[in-house]
Specification:
12 strands; three-stranded antiparallel sheet; mainly beta; globular; Protein Transport Mog1p, Chain A; single chain; about 15% helix
């Protein structure tokens, strides 16, 4: 799939942002600043394309023209970032195809991995698994990893605009 090849070319050293707190610098998208979506329960704020709105029936997903972004968390107790990402990449539903591409990433100073569909895969899903600066408690459960799901075209701009709340 040509889109996956373009996304891979963009990943080549993948350092998405410097360590920082909730203050988010303006990111331009087609000359306009991207709005910020803050999810206090997940301890993150991220930038998304203009016009995206909450998805009906979902608290952790917004969508609009050209894509979507959904946020989730993974307990991942005892897992390295690579092992956590590999578990997501090889789940039984195989949303990334039988041979997904994993690339190491740094998102707001935190280690993680971006998962892209294998070359030629028709799916329109990419995911990032990023270690929280400290475990995030959601509904009384401690989570070690943030999971961000989007399209292959939007995952990198979204990750570049992601900030963990509360600093590091």
């Amino acid at each position: 799939m040509r889109k996956a090849a373009v996304a891979l070319a963009l990943l080549a050293p993948l350092v998405l942002s410097a360590c920082g707190g909730p203050a988010v610098a303006t990111r331009k998208h087609h000359g306009l600043p991207r709005p910020v979506w803050t999810l206090p329960a997940y301890g993150v704020a991220l930038r998304h394309p203009i016009g995206w709105k909450p998805a009906a029936g979902y608290l952790e997903r917004i969508e609009g023209k050209g894509g979507y972004v959904a946020v989730n968390a993974l307990q991942g107790s005892g897992l390295t970032p690579r092992a956590a990402a590999l578990g997501q990449a090889t789940q039984s539903l195989a949303p990334f195809g039988p041979d997904p591409v994993l690339r190491r990433a740094t998102v707001d100073g935190q280690p993680g991995y971006v998962i892209l569909p294998e070359a030629g895969q028709a799916g329109d899903v990419a995911e990032a698994v990023v270690l929280y600066p400290k475990p995030q408690t959601i509904s009384g459960v401690a989570y070690r990893y943030l999971v961000v799901t989007s399209t292959p075209q939007e995952i990198l701009p979204i990750l570049r605009g992601l900030r963990f709340l509360g600093g590091h």
